[in-house]
Amino acid sequence: MKPLIFFLLLACLSSIGRAQVTDDLNFEEENIPIRNAFNSSYIINSQSTNILSPGRLNMLISHRFGTLNQGPFHFFGLDYGAMRLGFEYGINQRLTVGLGRSSVGKNFDTFFKYRLLTQTRGSNPQMPFSVVWFSSAAFSSVELRNRNLLDEGSRFSDCLVYTHQVLISHQFSSKFSLQLTPSLVHRNIVKFSGENNDVFSLGLGGRWKVSRRMHLLADYAYVFNHHSEQKLTNPLAIGIDIVAGGHVFQLHLNNALGMIEKEFLTTTDDDFLKGDIRIGFTILRSFMLAPEVKGGKIY
Amino acid sequence: MKKYVLVFLITTLYLQGYSQVYSGKNGSVNLLGKAPKETITAKSKALMGKLDAASREFNFRQNLSQFAFSQGDMQKKDAEEMYWQTDKYPYADFQGKIINSIDLSKNGTYDVTAIGSFRMHGVVKELKIPAQVQVKDGTMEVSSTFNIFLSDFDIEIPRLVALKVAEEFQASISLTLTR
Question: B74 and A286 in contact by Cβ < 8 A?
Fold first, then answer.
């Protein structure tokens, strides 16, 4: 009896398969890559898993003002402003390189981001995460000068600070994405005795897309081994991205002053919950230098 | 038990022997839209297609997330999120039949007319498209150029960009199919 049922079932299935000729012509579902879990290549302070498309150049002008609780005499912190001018360029589908100059510590920084894995959606077995490797080297000319005043023999390489991160993001829906950012900041020489050369931290960032033109963002990092004698805090920022064609305007509230990993992870000493909140903004202007597809033209 | 399985296998194999389905992937699709203030081009190498040489029925599908655009990722994002809405409608496909009574098993170049349903953005539209099929020793090269009106597929162009996004796009496709 059983084999008969089995055969009937098979016959049924096969007859369903033959009901239309076009069934032979059907396709399997494809996996669809999610290349941009975030709106831009930065969340607020941290890098995001977005990689620029080949030939794209971004110019970023970032500002962080003084803390709001400085009061009206300092115009709620707006009298003082730190800035960073940054550039980033997409080499290919996986690699983005960048450089920048910050007024905080007169830092020069260069970095690269390399895409290791891309999240996909689809009915087939899929990759649940996007993974991007980030490495940067930063150099503070203020530190070199100070060191040279103390000790003539200071070298350039003493003042180098390296950051390595693995950015892991997951897009839950087209509106909501989260990113985990384990990172290591390595300082060749530290300021105080007893300070760690290596600082480990874990960042958590998120994006909620309110509309096509507006995104809500949050960015936090927990630092595991702060120097115990300095009163250091963890960087926390919340903000919005406003997208307008080739521009992105980001407005945010932040307790970190620095705009590169070395600064905001290891030197932030303001407490967000005590009101040491800075207004900050970033203007991103995007240029297409070497279009992948020819023939397009803007008149 | 064995006997039944054998019968089943033989029937299916026999039936499969009858179909002459040619299939191919990584076909190219080029889009061109000329508006007064901008010409948009896009290209992809992700066209898939199947064609039954016996019944002359076909099915072509393009994954809309696989296009690269002249203005790069921002234009791509706009196209995918605003116009195509790829998270809801990931593919554009064209299913139908070549209406000319030709023998596609013989070598030669054929100018054909395909009639079928073109689906994009969740809207199905009956289209008649001219195409060229070149048959050579078991491979078929299919190419076609046709125009698509965005309004046919309920894709609205916001007034703000009406001078930049053309209402009519020209699509040129080319795909090699093998047995």
Answer: yes
Give me the CATH topology for the region B20-178: Lipocalin (2.40.128)
Comparing CB atoms, the residue among A3, A25, A174 nearest residue B87 is A174
Tell me if B59 and A286 make a contact (CB, 8 A cut-off).
no
Q: Is A286 on the interface with B (CB under 8 A)?
A: yes
pLDDT tens, chain B, 179 aa long:
666 666 655 555 555 545 688 999 899 999 999 999 999 999 999 999 999 988 899 999 999 999 999 888 888 888 988 899 988 899 999 999 999 988 888 899 999 999 999 999 999 999 999 999 999 988 999 999 999 999 999 998 888 888 989 999 999 999 999 98
Domain extent for A183: 33-288
* CATH number of the domain bearing residue A276: 2.40.160.40
Helix (H) or strand (E) holding A61, with range, is strand A56-67
CA A243 to chain centre: 17
Instruction: Kindly identify which residue of chain B lies nearest to residue A247, measuring between CA atoms.
Output: B74
The ipTM of this complex is 0.72
Distance (Å, rounded) from C-alpha A115 to C-alpha A50?
9
Which positions in chain B touch A174 (Cβ < 8 Å)? Answer: 81, 87
Helix, strand, coil: what percent of chain B each, to 5?
A: 20, 55, 25
